[in-house]
User: Fold this.
Amino acid sequence: MAILACTDADAAWQAVDGTPPADSQPWSIECPVRAADGRLLGGLRLLHGQARDVTDEDSQALKDLAGLAATAIEQRHALSGEREGEDPWREEARKLSLAIAGSGTGVWDRNVVTGEITYSPGWKALLGYSESELTTRIEDAYTRLHPDDLNYVRAVMQDHFDGKTDSYEVEHRIRCKDGSYKWICSRGKVISRDNAGKALRMMGTTTDISAVRAMSERLKQTADLVVNLTDAVPGLVFQCWSAPEGGSLFSYVSAGIWDMFELTADDVRASTTAIEQRIHPEDLAAYRASLQKAAAALTPWHMEFRVCLPVQGVRWRQGDASPRRDADSGVVW
Assistant:
């Protein structure tokens, strides 16, 4: 029977490659395990149950085994070094995950080189998954993105990898465990690059913004309704703001501004000058005075005046508005 034993470099090693120590027994042979640069990593000893002579074949076989052992040890050390480099980032991810647990935000940690992405329990819970239900493959992560958002998300991610942006931030839809989609905001940053600037590791957070998006959609629908209603009202519906130091602008006008003044919303967005240029010269002074009086007393404004329009010619108009003071001491009509 032959027994192969391995010792480490802490022992006092005396043997020369393939040559047993002077005091060794005939049934044993020893060989050091050395790194490529000559460092002593350990040693191998071959023991045999029966006395026998050591042949060249025995020595060569043990040297070959020592070479394989040295290669395995160096690879193991290299892998351990890589993991040690990753450990601080994983620890930071763990701390961040604990800090925001229960806040509706999850943490993810992506190894750009290997394509591995890990998620915090909170991240998985956002989509209705348990701790062990998601893989760490980035390819699987992309399959959960809404098809209409996939190319956009990947393009924004690639721009950050290429150093075109300082950080990664995108809002998109993602599929939950039950098959439904929810809106999320994903933010991240590359935290490690190689000497050539290639992205190695990226960390980030994901927040559920479904409620915010739903509210935004409701507000948009409300705003669209207001616009549609005011555009249907005969005449012009408007909101005008007058600065305390003078000067006014229209923050909102309905489509009726064309019928009333033959102007567009862009014509009056920055100033009311275009409106005053349409007022009949004989009525302009009274028009300005009536507005000033109503603004000073914060009383309703009412006036009938003439306008001179390029297409319609001279027409009579009736204006009504209610002024109120705003936080900047201006007046909103």
Q: What stands out?
A: The longest helix spans residues 56-99. Residues 78 and 84 are 10 Å apart (CA to CA). DSSP finds nine helices and 14 strands in the chain.
